[in-house]
Every structure is written in C-alpha cells, then in structure tokens.
Amino acid sequence: MNMTSTVAGIAPVPAAAEPVERSPGFWSGVVRKLMRDPVALGAGAVLLTLILMAIFAHQLVPSDPYATSMLKRLKPIGFEGFPLGSDELGRDMLSRLMLGTRLSLFMGITPVLIAFVIGSGVGILPGYAGGLVNTLIMRTIDILYAFPSVLLAIALSGALGAGIGNALLSLTIVFIPQIARVAESVTTQVRGRDYVEAARASGASPFTIVRVHVLGNVLGPIFVFATSLIAVSMILASGLSFLGLGVRPPEPEWGLMLNTLRTAIYTQPWVAALPGVMIFITSISFNLLSDSLRSAMDVKS
Amino acid sequence: MNTDTQTDRTPIVSVRDLRVTFTGGKKPVKAVNGVDLSVARGETVALIGESGSGKSVTLRSLLRLHPARRTRIEGRIDVAGVDVLAMNNRTLADYRGRIASMIFQEPLLALDPVYTVGAQIVESIRRHERISPADARKRALELFERVRIPSPERRLDAYPHEMSGGMRQRAMIALALACRPQVLLADEPTTALDATVQIQILLLLRELQRELGLGIIFVTHDMGAAVEVADRFAVMYAGRIVEEGPTREVIRNPRHPYTLALMQARADGAMEKGARLASIPGAPPDLANLPAGCAFAERCTFVQPACLQTQPDAVELGGSHRARCLRTDATAHVMTRAATHAPRPLTETA
After folding, report:
1. DSSP secondary-structure letter at B54?
2. Which of A86, A80, A46, A38 is CA-nearest to residue A64?
3. What is the pLDDT of residues A40-68, one digit of tens each?
4. What's the whole-number mean pLDDT along residues A99-123?
5. Which helix (H) or strand (E) segment is A121 a member of?
C-alpha cells in the first residue's frame, strides 16, 4: 500500500548529540508580528515619543513651564516666544503640554497596571474554582461593576479627598472589577478546554494547571483588554483633574489644563483645545496598539 | 489476525462491575451500568458504541477524570495491580500519565496553543521525573522520532497550529508516551483525521503497542478503525458491554442484535446503487430512566416478552466470545451470508 511506503520513506533521523537552542518564544513572535503591522508601528512610535518626552521633559522644554506673565496671557499659536501660544497666566503652552505628558501618562498607566495584577488574580481564582467560590466573588464584583465607572471614580475620589494618590487609588478600584470580569470569563472558557483535561490526564496538579495552562492562555487576552483601559484611565484621570479632584495647580496635567483654559474657549479656541488634542492622540494610540496586540497575539492567525 | 502476537495474559487493566452515575442534574444519569473489562499487556481492546453508550465515560473513569463532586463511581478498577478508586490526590497525580495516559480525539484542542509541542512534552516528563530540561528535551526528540515525525528537531519547536492534523496526532501520541506508560487510553484518536491519515495513525498505534508492550483501550464508533488495531472487541450499549470477543469472531459472527444491526448499518462494502442504508430504528434509552429489561429491547428485531423482564446475563459462546442477550440462538449465522462484506483490515491485503 502506498501509505506503507510513505511511512518507510521517512528516514530515521539520528538523535542529536547536544540539545538545540530554544525556539523563539510566544512573545517574540508577537513582537515580530507587531513590527510588520503599520498601524501598530505608527501608534507605537507616537507612544514612544510621548514616553521619551515625559522622561526628558525638563531637558526638552523650550522655556519654564511655571513662569507666568501677566502681559502675555492667552497669546495665539505662533506668537513670538510661544510656539503653541500661552495660557490664561501667560505660561508657555508647549512647555506645559510637554511636562504634562508625565502626569497624564502616569495617571493613565499606573492604575491599569495595578488593576491588571489584582484584577487578574481576583478573576482567575473564581474562574478556575467555579461553583460557590465563583458565585460569591463574582456577585460582589458585579455590585461594584453596576456603578458607571466615571461616577464611581468621582465618588471614590470625592470621598477620599483630592490628590494624585487618592485619584490613582480610586481609578484602580474602578478598573479591578472590569479586569476581573474579563479574567473570570476567559478562565472559565479555558478551564473547559481539552488541553486542561489532557494536563489533568497526564498528572498535573491544579496548581500546575493554573500556573502553566490557565495563566499562559489567559494573561494575553486580559492584557489586551487592560491596554484598552489605559485610554479610559487617562480620560478619567483628566476628568478628575478637571473637577479638581486629581492633580492640583500649578502642576501641568492635560485634564487640569483643559479645565483652566475652558474660560478662554471664546478668546483662544485653538489654544484651549490643545490639551484635548493631546489626550485624544494618546488615547487613540493606546487603543490602536491594543487592537494590533490582540490580532498579533492570536496564535492561529 | 493478531493472534500471532505473543501477549502476556495477565491483565494490566481490570475493571469489575463499574458503575458511573452523574449526580449533577435533576435526575441521576446512569452512564455506565456494570462494565467488566480486562486488558492484557500488549493487547488492544476496542470499546465500540454510539454517542452516549458510555464508552468515553468508562475510559475517563480509568483516569478518574470525572468531577468528583458530581460523579459517583462504584465497582473496582485495577490498573497495573493498583486500585485506582482508592487513590488519594497525590498517588492519582503520579498514576496519571505515568502508568496510564490518554490520547484525545482532537489534538488541536488537546494541545495547549500557547506552548510549543516540545515544551509540553518536556513539561510532562519533568512533572513525573527529576530530569534536566536538556535530557527531557532529548527524550522528547526520541519520542518524535519514534512516532515518525519528519524533521523532529524542528517540529519540537512548532506550535500545535503550525502542524498538520496527522502530525498533531503523532505529537499527541508522543506526549502521551512521554512518561513511558503501560496503558494507553485512546479516545477516538482517528475520528478527527481524514481517511489516509487515519490508517497511518492506526498503524503507528499498533506498532507502538507491539514494541512497548502497551495495553491499549481504543474507544471508537468506527468499526473499520477498530478492526485495524483491536485484538478484542467490546460493544457497548446504554452503559453496558453487550458483546465481547476476539475481533475476528465478533466481526464475522456478531451474536448480539445490536452488534448485528451496527454491522448491517455500515455504508462500506458492496452496496448497490440506489439501495437504502440500513439503520437502527428508534433511539437509545434515556440514561436517567433505564428500562428494567434489556436496554436494546425496544429497538430489537428479535425481541421477545422475556427480554423486557430482566437484564440478560452474559451468554458464553465459546472462545471467550460472549453476549448479553436471550436470543443468541436466533442471531447465530445471520451474518454468514454477509460475511464477505465484513470489514477487513487494510493491512491484511497489503
């Protein structure tokens, strides 16, 4: 029969003398795919620029972002000495926007990162355990989830008092239930997969299954969801600053700048819109990158 | 056909009066109702039946894979001389994969998509043995050569989705053999593969069984596949083994009306154009509400009033061939005229 010949046709391969080097892992494959995606490259470049700007803000700013001038208030874009105009206290907008990157990115990323770590744990446990544990934890989370996130953030910040630390804390609390829900649902799906049963059938303990098979398959999707929350977090943080609950003046932060400039919307609309433009660019870059990440992490594509 | 292979007759798997009841739903579902089965070293037993006949449940019970909270398992299961149902979590984890391991129907789903197959084999080996990653990888490479995966070195670093269906099933078999088990439980290992690949996998299984002296329980609903590998047939219906015997004997001369009907319902063989495919009327009984008598009685063409009264005992038909039926006298020689159409191993003609 022909299949016997195919079987016999495969020459026995001599055993390798030394172990070969490890294959490129899952993450390097993801990076390779992202490098081939123009949208991801564009969004990544924008974010990298913003991060570099945040790190080296003090070296890069053309003039003192805190220096006020009563004579040069609300100057238009391109005014001499003020490439992007000046704000209501005559401070250089370009310098303030650049320095503002720091706090805005920090307020966008930190709460999501903390919530990612805590929320994953809070979600994976009931997802894998199922039953009563699941019901107890998930119903508690649903209660938190029932509040609109903006409302919850404002309420928590208001209750805790103004300040960056409290704003971060309240944002983290807002994101934990959201991430936990995603973590729970992905874990529940993974738990029923054949490879989890196959791992049990080959003697893996529940701890090993969670550590290797559940985490390996679940962290990717949760991470993608978390990156999409960075944009939300930035906007919420800006909102809190806008309400006076987050960053306090004279520190430059985009949300706060938007707030203080709103009175100038009729005199210098373009200058007043600039912080909003920055928030928009940053959040859309995060969103696009998270979309690309999602498709790059789909191993089957 | 496999009578020439020298099989050691001490059973490596011995199942006595196994009963599995799922208690999760409203009514308890009796999936397995008193299965007796024994498998010798180096022997392959095919467990045949339709969906819901309890064949996979029986197989999974051998590794105790059913959720303990919602399952009641009664009877006795001994594998390699150890009582499986008496094991604690620790010994159960040592037993799984090391003494008995399992290959699954759909290798794409049974292999973890985010790890390379090599990494999964290494992990499985290191779970049971204190061995360096390099040595484990060397063993994985040997396994890949053994299951005849071309360019095994490179394939170890492939992800499951990068392999073809047949290759994946070979990798799955390599994974199952990673810790040198004595018993291999195969849950429809060829159902998800196309016909030419099926044959290759079946040949591989038979060869591995001979080389390694494995006891194999092969669950399938595909008679043709079962004939290829099995020394013995065990036909299941409604959670019971209704007929059991040497492959050739059961195929040539099925004595339980259900086996007989299954044989007649096969599509291959000399079917005339325009002829209708024979089918078994009715549906399998509700496992939550089993009849008092023979479970097949209401679909059986040989049924008599006595069949509805009691559960028929196994009737010895000679040569370790037995059937649980009151009408074995009536079913004798029914198949002889159709015997020419009986499935024959492809390898016999090769």
Report:
1. S
2. A86
3. 999 999 999 999 988 988 888 888 888 77
4. 92
5. helix A93-129
| Interface contact flag, B350 A193, Cβ < 8 Å | no
Search chain B and give the residue with CA nearest A24: B157
Distance CA B315, CA B325 (A): 7
Name which of B285, B264, B248 is nearest B335 in CA terms. B264
Cβ contacts (< 8 Å) between A218 and chain B: which residues? none
The nearest alpha carbon in chain B to A205 belongs to B93
DSSP-based three-state secondary structure for A79 = strand
Percentage helix, strand, coil, to 5, in chain B?
40, 25, 40
pTM score: 0.77
- Which DSSP symbol is given to B301? T
Instruction: Provide φ and ψ at A132, rounded to 5°.
Output: -65, -40
CA of A72 vs chain B CAs: smallest distance (Å) = 59
Residues of chain A positioned with their CB less than 8 A from the CB of B347: 1
Across the interface, whether the CB atoms of A299 and B113 are under 8 A apart is answered: yes
Contact A10 B151 (CB under 8 A): no
Give the Cα separation of A50 and B59 in Å (integer).
Answer: 58
Q: Considering only CA atoms, which of B231, B108, B137, B125 is closest in space to residue B177?
A: B125
Of B172, B201, B144, nearest in space to A199 by CA: B172
The residues in B 222-281 lying below 8 A from A, measured between CB atoms, are none
Confidence of residue B307 (pLDDT cuts 50, 70, 90): confident
pLDDT digits (tens, 9 = 90+) for B179-221: 889 999 999 888 888 888 888 888 888 888 888 889 999 999 8
Q: Virtual CA dihedral for B43, B107, B69, B100, nearest 10 degrees? A: 30
Strand partners, A1: none
Model ipTM over 0.95: no
Residue range B248-260, pLDDT digits in tens: 888 888 888 888 8
| Residue in chain A lying closest to B156 (CA) | A23
Distance CA B133, CA B126 (A): 8
- Is there a contact between A26 and B203 if contact means CB atoms under 8 Å apart? no
The per-residue pLDDT for B100 is: 92
Which of B79, B114, B347 to substitute to test the interface with A, most A CBs within 10 Å? Answer: B114
Peptide bond before A177: cis, by omega within 30 degrees of 0?
no
Chain B residues 115-144 with CB within 8 Å of chain A: 115-116, 118, 123-124, 127-128, 134, 137-138, 141-142
Q: Do B238 and B285 contact (CB within 8 A), yes or no?
A: yes
Give the relative orientation of helices A26-35 and A269-296 as an angle to the nearest 10 degrees. Answer: 130
Q: Which domains does chain A have, with CATH numbers?
A: 104-301 (1.10.3720.10)
